[in-house]
Write a structure and sequence with these properties.
Blueprint (H helix, E strand, L loop, with lengths): L7 E5 L4 H10 L5 E5 L16 H16 L2 E11 L20 H11 L9 E11 L5 E12 L15 E3 L4 E2 L5 H7 L1 H16 L1
Parallel strand pairs: 1-2, 1-3
Antiparallel strand pairs: 3-4, 4-5, 5-6, 6-7
Helix pairs in contact: 4-5
Amino acid sequence: MHSDVSKARLLMATRNQGKIVELKHALAKLHVEVCSLADVPGIPSFAETGTTFQENAAGKALAAAQAGGLICLADDSGLEVDALSGRPGVYSARFAGEEATDAQNNAKLLKLLQGIPPEQRTARFVCCLAAAWPDGRVQTVVGQCAGTILEEERGNGGFGYDPLFYLPELQKTFAELTVEEKEQISHRGQALRSFAAILAEIL
């Protein structure tokens, strides 16, 4: 692990700026410097061929940790919709195709749920976070958040399916929450808090 006197470096195996912002926020109290794949050149891309969030997250974290020589954190997260038998699941980011945009994925989800009444539009966001060390150790944690899928987008924050994912108890979508609110209740926020506790012990 590369570290200096001041801060340990932690590599987040993603180029998704939304995820990096959430990670930096969650780990702000710890003495770590968070960098992304954009900051550490030469790490090959990892093919997410796993059938579970755990397989993808662990594989991604381990490949990047061994290539970069740093403690690496990777997540695989997605949306499971009950009316679609758990889809899109591990295919959430590429639901409408390999290079699909958030808008295209959201449009496909809305189309598939056309005519489904509100009480049957239950769903959950799942996040599996894997931490890997260059020596091959891997630890995973999982967070979940339940909600429902709206019939149209609401809110300008977040990313992915956030504008469609509605939290009845707050009467807001994920895209209408502040970063702090989202961190408190989101699947990734839960997983990050678990990981922060693990990291605090290690460091």
